[in-house]
Specification:
Elements: H1 12-16, H2 23-28, H3 42-57, H4 62-76, E1 81-88, E2 92-99, E3 110-112, H5 116-124, E4 128-130, E5 152-160, E6 163-172, H6 180-198, H7 205-208, E7 219-222, E8 224-227, E9 230-237, H8 252-275, H9 284-296, H10 299-310, H11 315-330, H12 336-357, E10 372-376, H13 381-385, E11 392-397, H14 405-413, E12 417-419, H15 424-427, E13 433-437, E14 442-445, H16 449-471, E15 486-491, H17 498-503, E16 508-512, H18 514-518, H19 526-540, E17 545-548, H20 576-581, H21 583-597, E18 602-606, H22 612-631, E19 640-646, H23 655-659, E20 664-667, H24 669-676, H25 695-710, E21 715-717, H26 725-734, E22 738-741, H27 743-754, H28 758-768, H29 777-786
Parallel strand pairs: 9-10, 10-11, 11-12, 15-16, 15-22, 16-17, 17-18, 18-19, 19-20, 20-21
Antiparallel strand pairs: 1-2, 1-6, 2-3, 4-5, 5-6, 7-14, 8-12, 9-13, 13-14
Helix pairs in contact: 3-4, 3-6, 8-12, 9-14, 10-11, 11-12, 16-27, 19-21, 21-22, 26-27, 26-28
């Protein structure tokens, strides 16, 4: 046990190595690995829990029972002191019961979270065991307690539902090394205490979450866009947990039998749920559901639950203990992929508890309103499928990321999702009216009548525009003066492919191959990759697809490539730099792409090329794989086009040479503009400081059009800039004839192109190009208004 309770560096690859999907290592992270009967002795642990159970079920006030609990723990663990600190409003820990410290300090001694050793335990949600507590830099002396005579300290957080509700501490006069078995035993006891605290007699919910009338007022919360769209509906709080009515087991063997039976029932229920899913057979969401199924069968996770039962807990309490322990440890990990997998474990723990209790999964029992806005801290993918999809309008998460499993499944259901909405569960009550604006990553709670009318009007306008765009689906994006622009979509999952037909797009201008890699625990084999790319080409139905090779690093981390974590990742070891340093990865991907083509045309694009030498090196690797395929009798692509993504400004000064080597060039405007202005696009302070419609940005793009045009090399732009109607109008005026965007932008951009007369726009841009303005946005908007361009 780390005496400071610190987790230390975690290697995500090591966590995931050797298990079905890594749950075993995640669930055991930071805890002891010996069974309880090798530590404290099962009979001793069960005896302590039995005595505590009798106290909890006995007469007297909650304070009386808490006083008895600390006395029993002190005696059983041979400690001179046992103290219970409970969390009060404002993140204050109050000494609420003690055996050994001065009685007058009870309800007088208070510590902030992070203050003193007790505060550190609460802040980190981790145990702390010190043989010389007073030498620890975080030690805070409180004279009213009389604790200066006690040298050793062991403390554990009191956890419930992943939240710290207090700290349980034992102390000894003499220096004492607390063994792992003692820490484990105190953690189990703390879980029993958590149930006493949760009853609300010691600390009320109202005290922890004071509202002062604020909850009835309209309120807005911001988050992160996980799926675009607009919706309004009634809040349904996703609260899947059950009430644990018995914590201490009478018969551990019987509890193990109950666990085995419930596990079998859960597996069967999951199989039925996925078998009846109406999401279709194809799509990355199916891979997600298969991964979830493997989580459910992981032996390591179930083994930890069995250990907890053998220590004396009921099956339900054992599931909760492993869940809380895992959640606390996962909070110490910064790797986004591993943290996102916690939602799957939470989902499984909830399901297993419901099967143990004999209750159906919560969502199937709720009388849902017609329009549901689901509010959750986090969710697993199967939990979302439990809800009636015909009533589900939007999803709001306190956590979540674009690569979280539930976000991927929600995109398949085509509902707006806003994640990382801090305080959502604390500010939203069941039945509240909620507006979810996925486009702007915000939610409105209890909106007023005027806002409701505005939203309903906006939804009506969206429906009208959608119908109008649908009518344009099979028409070309041709200007009024006869110039045709190819409108393509950006994609990264199989579930994006149906949008080709739905929007009438001309192809896929950017297929991000890294997303399937990010939701896996190991690097996919050549066969697995080839199967995915083959399905992409099949579903594209002959329309062109441009596959971008792995663009990892930066904000896209692979759990099995931990070296990509950097302080300045946007300009660090990423994309083609990783590919050239790890050529085996690139060779496997290129081999899979060649195999998937199977005689069909295919386009391959290398990301973040900064100089000609990098592009040449990548093409040499591709040539090796083409020769290898020929030698092995693999059917080669009927046409193999190789391009570069222009994201680094340095490449502009070698663009004429690149045009002699590349079959096409694609501008990644997101990174190009970030590097052009030295603007971190994740920095909120700089979000509106520089504009892509400013003279320097447009001059840069005009140069790119001029150079590629002179060389007759096809040019595409596939960043966010292509999806805005005003920005797309400007790009077409500059000379771009291929734009790739999100599927939802195809209709609006096509309507804009078909209303545009290109000649006047060209003259206008030429006249404005030398202006010193910070931005030309408003001038371009006025031009569009004056020329009736449909924005």
């Amino acid at each position: 046990m780390d005496p400071a309770g610190a987790l230390g560096p975690v290697d995500p690859a090591a966590i995931l190595e050797g298990d079905t999907v890594g749950v075993h290592s995640i669930a055991r992270l930071g805890s002891g690995t010996h069974l309880m009967d090798q530590r404290m002795g099962l009979s001793g642990a069960r005896r302590l829990l039995g005595r505590l159970r009798d106290v909890m079920a006995g007469a007297g006030s909650a304070q009386d029972r808490l006083d008895q609990v600390v006395q029993i723990i002190a005696a059983d663990m041979e400690a001179e002191v046992c103290s219970a600190y409970l969390m009060r409003a404002g993140d204050i820990l109050e000494l609420c019961a003690t055996q050994g410290l001065f009685p007058e300090s009870v309800h007088r001694t208070r510590l902030r979270v992070g203050e003193g050793l007790v505060g550190v335990i609460a802040a980190t949600a981790r145990p702390l065991a010190l043989s010389d507590a007073q030498s620890h830099p975080a030690f805070a002396y409180r004279p009213e307690t009389g604790e200066e005579i006690y040298h050793s300290l062991m403390g554990v957080p009191i956890l419930r539902e992943g939240r710290v509700s207090g700290v349980l501490v034992v102390q000894n006069r003499e220096p004492r090394h607390y063994a792992d078995e003692e820490i484990e035993a105190l953690q189990t006891v703390a879980m029993v205490l958590a149930e006493l605290v949760a009853a609300g007699d010691l600390v009320t919910r109202a005290e922890l979450h004071p509202t002062d009338g604020i909850a009835t007022l309209p309120h807005r919360l911001d988050g992160v866009r996980l799926n675009s769209g607009l919706a309004i509906g009634i809040a349904v709080l996703h609260e899947p947990s059950i009430i644990i009515r018995q914590v201490v087991a009478d018969n551990p063997e019987l509890e193990l039998e109950r666990l085995n039976r419930a596990t079998t029932e859960m597996h069967q229920a999951i199989d039925r749920l996925f078998a009846t899913s109406d999401l279709g057979d194809g799509g990355e969401h199916n891979d997600i559901l298969e991964t979830y199924r493997m989580f459910a069968e992981d032996r390591g996770w179930l083994g930890r639950i069995r250990e907890a039962i053998e220590s004396g807990l009921t099956a339900e309490a054992a599931v909760q203990k492993v869940r809380d322990d895992t959640r606390a440890r996962m909070k110490q990990i910064t790797d986004p992929y591993i943290r996102e997998r916690l939602a799957d474990l939470e989902d499984l723990a909830n399901r297993l508890q419901h099967h143990l209790s004999g209750e159906a999964v919560t969502a199937t029992k709720i009388d849902l309103p017609e329009d549901v806005v689901l509010i959750a801290r986090s969710m697993g993918p199967a939990e979302l499928l439990d809800y009636d999809r015909t009533r589900l309008r939007a999803l709001v998460l306190e956590e979540g990321s674009p690569t979280s499993h539930v976000a991927i499944v929600a995109r398949a259901l085509d509902i707006p999702v806003v994640g990382r909405v801090k305080g959502a569960l604390g500010n939203i009550e069941p039945g509240d009216l909620i507006v979810v604006d996925g486009d702007n990553a915000q939610i409105m709670i209890r909106p007023g009548e005027d806002v409701q009318q505005t939203i309903e009007q906006a939804l009506g306008e969206r429906r009208h525009r959608r119908a109008r765009y649908q009518a344009l689906r099979d028409l070309p994006a041709t200007t009024l003066d006869g110039v045709t622009v190819a409108l393509q979509i950006n994609a990264g999952l199989l579930l994006d492919l149906p949008e080709l037909a739905a929007t009438g797009a001309d192809g896929i201008g950017l297929y991000r191959t890294e997303l399937p890699f990010m939701v896996r625990s190991t690097f996919p084999s050549v066969e697995e990759q080839a199967d995915l790319y083959r399905r992409v080409l099949d579903q594209a139905g002959g329309k062109p697809v441009v596959f971008r090779t792995l663009d990892i690093g930066g904000d896209k981390l692979l759990p099995y490539l931990p070296e990509t974590v950097e302080e300045n990742p946007a300009m660090g070891w990423r994309a083609i730099r990783i590919a050239l340093d790890r050529p085996a990865m690139l060779r496997q991907q290129l081999r899979a792409l060649i195999s998937a083509a199977n005689g069909r045309p295919i386009s391959i694009m290398f990301p973040m090329v900064a100089e000609i030498a990098e592009f040449d090196a990548a093409r040499r690797i591709l040539a090796i794989e083409v020769r290898r395929a020929m030698q092995r009798g693999v059917t080669l692509p009927s046409r193999l086009l190789v391009g570069a993504m222009l994201e680094v400004p340095a490449l502009i000064w070698q663009l004429d040479m690149l045009c002699g080597r590349a079959d096409f060039v694609s501008v990644g405007s997101n990174d190009l503009m970030q590097f052009l202005f030295a603007k971190d696009r994740s920095n909120a302070r700089l979000a509106d400081r520089y504009d892509v419609l400013s003279p320097p940005a447009l001059a840069c793009l005009a140069d790119i059009v001029r150079i590629t045009g002179a060389a007759k090399v096809p040019l595409c732009l596939c960043g966010e800039m292509a999806g805005g109607t005003l920005e797309a109008m400007t790009l077409v005026g500059l000379g771009f004839r291929i734009l790739s965007m999100s599927p939802s932008s195809i209709g609006p951009v096509k309507a804009m192109v078909r209303s545009l007369k290109l000649g006047p726009l060209r003259h206008y841009l030429a006249a404005q190009s030398k202006q010193p303005d910070h931005s030309l946005r408003e001038k371009l908007r006025e031009f569009a208004r004056d020329h009736t361009v449909a924005l």
